[in-house]
Design a protein that fits this description.
Shape: elongated
Number of helices: 1
Distance between the termini: 54 Å
Strand order of the largest sheet: 1-2-3-6-7-8-9-12
Order of helices and strands: HEEEEEEEEEEEE
Number of strands: 12
Length: 241
């Protein structure tokens, strides 16, 4: 009888240890646990300058400008490795042209001198993130961010020719769905660096233009992207609280 009780005790202890090991393995696969908050932001800035640049039908021209974009986000872990939240994006772009000539043949050419375009854009996104550990690492993980986007932009294009100035004012409204996979790398227990890139998306847009406060035009567009978009690479920092 004592031997049976002893064997049963050993069996229960073994099963308990195995259960604890199973729980530990499951916990090791959790990168973002339920109830965790994630806040962060990505910022990008670039400048460009061209002097006597020539490309295909574009004759020598001069240009300069910059592009700035900031995108804060906040998400909450609804369950292990699944988080939902929102993101806001604002961008500003300025481009100036001088001596821009399109040579389309002996009888047709287009010249733009002393021209600049200024654009402000904004986007509000509802996002969902799925995380996958890289092996048993707690420092690196992959994620896929699904985005439902709504936004718009305002821009003005001004061209000066002698004493005459012509301007076109545009507003746009955009709606889209996209997916951006990325990688997370922790630099300490609470701070991580994130890199993401857009790979697919569907976008719908409508643009309204008014030229010289007289002529108006409307344009609608739709597009589907199923390839890596190098212009959508994002680099940011996030805090896992």
């Amino acid at each position: 009888m004592k031997k049976i009780i002893f064997l049963l005790s050993i069996l229960c202890l073994t099963l308990s240890v195995q259960a604890q090991e199973g729980k530990k393995k499951i916990a090791d696969n959790v990168f973002v646990p339920k109830g965790q908050w994630i806040v962060g932001s990505s910022v990008s800035y670039s400048e460009h300058t061209e002097e006597n640049y020539q490309f295909l039908i574009i004759d020598k021209f001069n240009s300069d400008g910059y592009s700035f974009k900031v995108s804060p986000l906040i998400v909450y872990g609804l369950k292990d490795n699944l988080a939902m939240g929102g993101r806001f994006s604002y961008g500003r772009t300025l481009t100036k042209f001088d001596n821009l000539n399109f040579d389309l043949g002996d009888d047709l050419s287009i010249n733009l001198n002393d021209t600049y375009e200024l654009t402000h854009s904004y986007t509000v996104m509802a996002i969902m993130r799925n995380y996958i550990n890289l092996g048993s690492s707690k420092r690196f993980a992959l994620f896929a961010e699904t985005q439902l986007k709504f936004g718009g932009s305002q821009s003005k294009l001004v061209t000066k020719s002698g004493q005459e100035v012509s301007g076109t004012y545009s507003t746009s409204t955009d709606l889209g769905i996209g997916v951006s996979p990325g990688i997370v790398a922790f630099v300490n227990n609470y701070t991580a660096v994130e890199v993401s890139v857009g790979v697919l998306g569907v976008d719908f847009g409508k643009v309204h233009q008014k030229k010289d406060q007289i002529y108006t035009a409307d344009r609608s567009s739709s597009s589907a992207n199923f390839r890596i978009n190098l212009f959508s690479i994002g680099l940011g920092i996030a805090f896992y609280l």
